[in-house]
Amino acid sequence: MTRLTLALRQRPSQRLDLSPLVPHLLAGKSAREIERIELQTTRRRVAVGEVFRLRMGDAEQICIEGSCERLDYVGREMTGGELLVDGDVGIQAGRLLSGGRLAIRGNAGPWAASGMKSGLLQILGAAGDRLGGPLPGEMSGMRGGIVVVRGDAGERAGDRMRRGTIIIEGHGGPYPGSRMIAGTLIVLRSAGALPGFLLKRGTIVLGGGCDALSPTFVDCGVHQLLANRYMAAMIEPYSRPAAKLMRRPLRRLAGDMAVLGKGEIFVENTTEA
Amino acid sequence: MPALTIKGVQIDDTFAEAFGMRATALIITADTARWARQAAVTMTGMATSVIGCGCEAGIDRELNSRQTPDGRPGIRVLLFAVSTAELQKQVQTRVGQCVLTSPGSACYSGLEGEESLRLGDGLRYFGDGWQISKRVGPKHFWRIPVMDGEFVCEASAGLTKKAVGGGNLIIIGRTAQTTRAAAEAAAAAIAKVPDVIAPFPGGIVRSGSKVGSKYKGVPASTNDAYCPTLRGVVKTALEADAAAVLEIVIDGLTSDAVASAMRAGIAALVKLGPKRGAMRISAGNYGGKLGPHHYHLRRLLP
Lengths: 273, 302
Description:
A: mainly beta, 5 helices, B: Alpha-Beta Plaits, elongated
């Protein structure tokens, strides 16, 4: 299968909306039709052919070469196939993703994986603030799928997350897993202050501790839970270090008792988080 | 009925008549193989016949730690029932009473079926509000807090409607000892066939039944034609020198699995020979009008 490639000619003069460039929307389209797709976010019209050099192939696998942070909404509402991005992306990459794989070989802006429903989002660099989080006015953030960030993540990763798994292999910003409703958030290195702020349900795993833990989390002791081992087996294909962390004995802190209190934070086996 | 003889063992030209069933497979794991087996043995107890037990269940095979979802030793069990509703009830009751209660146990679906049964989705209420739902990719499981930690249970289990129940072999011998030895050999061979169980004790049943009874309301009664002590007083199916009869009933997830199991059983009986084992092999049927699956012995010869 030859993949469809879009090579950025030069850094665009305005931010672009790349949401039309997903496999299910490009399937069956000719090169001419694809080049005419409009991507502008201002009043000045910009078509695909003006900013990208198109090499036709099977739209089931799309590659964006030379990407930069001015490309927003990459992979938005994608339902299947593969979208590979070589470079950075702007805001809301993988927003409402419901299937397939979106792989970003660079950094992602804020609200990556926002409202994601299913599928896989891989970010090889860092992720911006509110990874998987809801947009203003929305009741829940990520609702399913798996997000893997090889670098660091900004503040409030997993905000209002309802289902799914987020793995951050680097550092986490402040308030990771804030207002989480359910799901699993794993931060391998240290996280910022107040993880699980107003956590209702869900699991946060902190491999490197955090700057400050809310006193509204209560110690439930050190456990090597089968559920974590089972989770480890399931996430191993996506992140071996995360799987390794989940297999260790971890201290369980239940909370946030300021709200429902049926969530949990796992930290390394020390008396202090 | 005409018969053929292989290595001195007479094989009747007849067939086993079997029925379509609903079935599921579960994987039970524990910290040790001993406790995985204990949970499996307990949950498949008193599950020999749908007539009196609601379901037929048994151990399919042992699984090593590389073959189970959580990397611990495990056992795959199969459960068969006549309806989806009854199977659901049996799964819920047996896992709830026998697996949930067993130290260190966990329970997962062991079958990708066309439909699904509630597994952890029903048992989660034992958690009294402290149960935790987890979903990773297509997998959904429940964590239910219990006194030794947590009971991990997959949310649902696969269901197949292509299962077959009632494959059988009737083993006739000259003494009780040789008949039992023959049945043991056949049961051991059948136990190695995947996707089947022989639900009776040790895989063997000595009280084969016929449909109906002289007594009102009794659905099944002793198969008098195969009772050696009644040879002179009923229309018998036994020759003069037959001293004992044992039966092996086989349930399988597919018709092919049942046929493979019967073939393995016949091969073991023939290998043992008539002196140390069975003098004759037959099969039970109802004339071919009740069950859609017919397993002719002559097509299953070794």
